[in-house]
Design brief:
There is one protein chain. The chain has one domain (about 1-435). By secondary structure, it is mainly α. The chain is built from 17 helices and no strands. It has helices at about 1-5, 10-35, 40-75, 80-115, 120-125, 130-145, 150-175, 180-205, 215-250, 255-290, 295-320, 320-330, 335-350, 350-365, 365-390, 395-420, 425-450.
């Protein structure tokens, strides 16, 4: 076992997939508990809260800082330079957080009204302000871990964060206390604080305990990370546009709750893709400098084929039995989400192609191109979603998601073909090779087990 864990790929894949699985597992368990004890309007407000704080705030800030932090530290040569990079990243991290807090205090009520949630959403965001401050250190320690090719602490920190939130809502359930949206926001903050303490324990060996940000590194991080930040904002809006527009163009958060039920289940398909991105990015950054585009293309084609091979069987099962899955997880009142789930699953089959393409372009330093491509696909989805919602109605946003996924998948493929020579036939050949390899390996294991004589 120790021999296998000496490999960067096996060790990293083990911890990152565990992290992603635990995040989705606890997210699903928490979802099952909450969806049965919150009304549909409350569930819709909770979904919008998570979009704002987890997707918009957390993910976009991470897009600006984490990738730049990882790229420059992995390329750095000495401790003073790495200290300056980490210090500058932390300073920018804190600055963005306090700007976002200012936005909430000034415009939170307007945002809540625009999304038809009364004052509930703005109240939750204000109660979550301590959690946002904790997120400064959570995301910083995550970046430190990954920049040193260490994913164990990231897994532990996220596991503790998710488990803490589960324990907090579980104790309310066991006491028979009614769930309050504001208390859920507070629980999120407490769980992040627990995650920060865990990450600190694992990150101590990498901390230099110096704070020396520099103007030069500020410019470099914004020069590299600025376009990634823009891409992150666009990507976040793109992936949540169906729920955002549904909230804005309808008068009840209940519709958002239905879409959110399908989105949560669809997240299982995305676990391998996002995990692969975290593993590949540091290695691609190195390969782009040391080994050239050919190695990067190999990484991309291999990883996309593996991801497709992993998610395909699960996708087929959900496509065949969508109502069974929805009723099992969310309950019969969300049965109308079955068709939405099917459309999302079809769109997700194209997800690895686009997700890994964005990671690849960023690792090559072509952040401006990635930003432009993301902007084009967002504009297309915005227009298609608006038209579909107006003409088709309730299912319009889901249909628009599938249409956009098909168009953007073709668009991104041709771009990657021009940039690094990606070949679709090679991806499909690797795809079938993965199944053949798995079959051959499985048969060898079964054969060895049959040869083992039972002990008498």
């Amino acid at each position: 076992m120790k021999k296998y864990f000496a490999s960067y790929w096996i060790r990293s894949a083990f911890y990152v997939f565990l992290q992603r699985f635990s995040l989705t597992f606890f997210g699903l368990i928490n979802f099952i508990v909450l969806i049965r004890h919150l009304s549909k309007p409350q569930m819709g407000v909770w979904a919008l809260f998570l979009i704002v704080v987890t997707n918009v705030f957390e993910s976009t800030k991470s897009a600006l800082l984490k990738n730049a932090h990882i790229r420059y530290v992995t390329m750095g040569k000495d401790s003073p330079e790495k200290s300056a990079i980490a210090s500058t990243s932390l300073l920018i991290n804190a600055s963005i957080t306090f700007l976002f807090i200012g936005f909430i205090l000034l415009f939170g009520t307007w945002l809540s009204t625009a999304l038809h949630t009364g004052t509930e959403l703005s109240d939750m965001l204000k109660w979550f302000i301590p959690g946002m401050i904790c997120m400064i250190f959570f995301s910083h320690f995550e970046a430190i871990q990954q920049s040193h090719f260490d994913f164990k602490g990231v897994f532990a920190g996220n596991l503790v964060r998710q488990a803490t939130f589960f324990i907090l809502i579980l104790q309310d359930y066991l006491r028979g206390s009614p769930y309050s949206l504001n208390s859920l926001a507070i629980y999120q903050g407490i769980s992040i604080m627990a995650g920060v303490l865990t990450l600190l324990l694992f990150s101590r060996k990498y901390l230099l305990f110096r704070f020396d940000p520099t103007r030069g590194w500020t410019k470099k991080i914004f020069s590299y990370g600025g376009f990634i930040f823009g891409s992150g904002v666009i990507s976040t809006v793109y992936s949540n546009l169906d729920q955002i527009l549904t909230a804005a163009l309808t008068t009840s958060p209940s519709y958002v709750a239905t879409y959110n039920a399908a989105t949560r289940l669809n997240n299982f398909i995305d676990i391998p893709s996002y995990a692969a991105g975290e593993i590949l990015f540091p290695k691609m950054s190195q390969a782009s400098v040391a080994e050239g585009v050919g190695k990067v293309r190999y990484f991309y084609e291999r990883m996309v084929s593996i991801l497709l091979a992993v998610i395909f069987p699960l996708a087929v099962f959900i496509l065949l039995f969508p109502k069974f899955v929805i009723i099992l997880i969310a309950g019969k009142q969300y049965e109308s989400a079955a068709l939405i789930l099917q459309l999302y699953i079809l769109a997700s089959l194209l997800g690895p192609l686009q997700n890994q393409a964005a990671n690849t372009l960023n690792s090559l330093g072509r952040t401006a191109l990635c930003f432009t491509l993301n902007a084009v696909t967002l504009a297309a989805k915005l227009g298609i979603t608006f038209v579909c919602l107006r003409t088709i109605g309730f299912y319009g946003a889901a249909i628009a998601t599938l249409i956009t996924a098909l168009l953007s998948g073709i668009f991104w493929y041709f771009i990657m073909n021009r940039q690094i020579g990606v070949n679709l036939l090679t991806i499909f050949r690797y795809f079938w090779d993965n199944y053949r390899t798995a079959w051959t390996t499985g048969m060898k294991i079964i054969g060895r087990l049959r040869k083992v004589q039972p002990m008498v």
